[in-house]
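Posting this for the archive.
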Amino acid sequence: MEKEQKENLTKKKKVKEIKKKVNNKPKVNKEEEKLKKENQDLNDKVLRLSAEMQNMRRRYDEEMARICKYEGEELILKILTIVDNFERAIMLDDSNLTDELSKFLDGFKMIYGNLKNILEASEVKEIDCLKQAFDPNTMEAVLTVHEENTEPGIVLDVLQKGYTYKDKVIRHAMVRVSE
């Protein structure tokens, strides 16, 4: 009997130990779950930051490409005012000019031709709009005039030429349009 009691005590101790182990498992499981959750949160945060960095890099690259593509736009706009002045000077009636003034006008025409060639080589193009339908994307209507035998919305006169640089309108044409 004593032997039996010892065995029962031993069995009871073993049962207690197993219960302790089982009772400790939920603590371990809770800690493990907590660590897994923290790990998942950190992984998500790293993933979001990585995506944000990629987006920032892409936006930066696009902005740099745009800046490089339209580099020189400000200079071209300043040169266009000079071209306008040359065009006004060339419009003078040179039939009444003295020989010396006629030579100056010829020099102006040569400089004007060179400027136009440089602008064309730089992909600056004049917007063709005379007798065309009015396009608000490339033109600015300064005056509207009622003219018979002309459809409404047709450009009658170009007051200031418009230009595109590569694929961008850098100066809208100022035009007079029929009503």
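The chain has a mean pLDDT of 86. The longest helix spans residues 2-69.
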